[in-house]
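In full, the data:

***
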Amino acid sequence: MMSATMKTRTLTASNKAEYNPRKISKRRLVMLRDSLREFGDLSGFIFNRRSNKLVGGHQRLKSWDDTARVTITNSLKEPDRVGTVAYGFVEMDGTRYAYREVDWDANRERSANIAANKHGGEFDDALLAEVVKQLDTNKAESAAIGFEADELAELLSPAKDKGNGEIVYEQAVQLRPQMEYVIIACDTPEQFDALRKRLGLGVVRRGGYKKGSDWDDIGVERVIKYERFANLISKSR
């Protein structure tokens, strides 16, 4: 059984990793702060004692074949400010993972579940690409960090360098009412993935939003112009 020694440490801005590819807007940072104040830390395993349901940690549990043994290390006499009633850990392969029990009504449970899946910011794609370039990732390792091999390839290929080191993405082509167009509907994610590869759909910045704004976003191309499609057809003949 693992033994534990309690120590204290102070974390400051100087401890932040300069290579961290995750970014968050000021607006979402405020939302994250409000979530922490309302629900507490939603990482790890969060279990609602009242409903006997998980609030957070579903994918972690699934990755362990839906079975995890919990050890409670600290039970509170009364719920704390955010409704916590106990702390503990889940042990897997000799490593302990954080576990927290709460006493919430159904509305707060569902709200916390949404918050757990929503908050955390977004990737700075340019910085993420630089970090990925420094990794020696095989197929298994790329899956462990949350990316398929083709996603890593796509991440590293579509960006253009302006020459000053800033990585930018082309603006997405938008549909307009006066334009004639055809929509190809995919019934499954697999069909869309195959179509994306056949059409060479890259990563673009969504049109209409200023870079760096709260609504700025990066996504897969959804519209291509006729000239490009005609060129693809001619090459496939």
Observations:
- Residues 127-168 form one domain.
- The helical segments are 26-39, 58-63, 106-118, 125-133, 139-144, 149-156, 189-199, 226-236.
- The first helix runs from residue 26 to 39.
